[in-house]
Amino acid sequence: MKMQAERLTVIEPLPLPLHEKLFDDGEQLALALARQVAADLRAALARHGEASIALSGGNTPKRFFQLLSQQTLDWARVTVLPIDERWVPAEHPRSNERLLREHLFQNNAAVARFLPLYRPVDTPEMALMPVLTKIANEGLPLDVAVLGMGEDGHTASLFPDLGHDNPALREIGLQPRGRAPVMSVRTAAMPEPRMTLTLSAIFTAPALYLHIEGESKRAVLDAARSDPRSTLPIRAALAGASNAPTLYWSP
Ligand SMILES: O=C1O[C@H](COP(=O)(O)O)[C@@H](O)[C@H](O)[C@H]1O
């Protein structure tokens, strides 16, 4: 009797789900994202009379913030939170609060309400309880969150050297309620400590966007999306979101 040869089929894992909006340049991207976020905020205002949005910092979102600030909506009923903050005074060039003040809180958005993560004390740990309470009571749940990503695959202030078994990343899949909304972060990758919204807090937003620009970040994102062994925080953020985020990308 002839033995039948065994055939092995290798099944490639599917990349994590992501909606994609691709643009030719950062200007077009910024305008489309500003219009989309403004529409989300208007819808939230119509639903419950107020709206809450968490926004990333860094260099990428400047143009988006400027265009968002020009959108017509009832900004006085909108609360804005930084997704993360570097522990430097609000006037410091590396402050995400400063970025928001200079680029978002102008034009129509000048009247928006701001919930800072930074407090003028020496360490983020010293401010953790008051900030946590304020954010939990007055900032959450979010209506909209816009994540960014660094070249190293960090998102918010969740850095690769936190370790993939860190509670901040292990919380994937757990219910948002009952989880701490903010945490302090110390990473060798950055010169100062930080405070960040946790994934639990970020995932309270039904409208979740990822804004990245450039080919090299795109390659990091695609690799993290496709590789189930990836321990990059951006993969944790994609894996844990109950609604697939929408990527806004331009070269
Ligand atoms: O440090 C940070 O980096 C990321 C990415 O910033 P970018 O300058 O590469 O655009 C940002 O999303 C985060 O909010 C920020 O604090």
Automatic annotation (TrEMBL):
It catalyses: 6-phospho-D-glucono-1,5-lactone + H2O = 6-phospho-D-gluconate + H(+). It is an enzyme of class 3 (hydrolase). Keywords: Hydrolase. GO terms for biological process: carbohydrate metabolic process; pentose-phosphate shunt. The keyword Hydrolase applies. Pathway: Carbohydrate degradation; pentose phosphate pathway; D-ribulose 5-phosphate from D-glucose 6-phosphate (oxidative stage): step 2/3. It holds the Pfam family Glucosamine_iso. InterPro entries: 6-phosphogluconolactonase_DevB (IPR005900), 6PGL (IPR039104), Glc/Gal-6P_isomerase (IPR006148), NagB/RpiA_transferase-like (IPR037171). CDD domains: 6PGL (cd01400). Hydrolysis of 6-phosphogluconolactone to 6-phosphogluconate. This is 6-phosphogluconolactonase. It comes from Lysobacter enzymogenes. The lineage of its organism: Bacteria, Pseudomonadati, Pseudomonadota, Gammaproteobacteria, Lysobacterales.
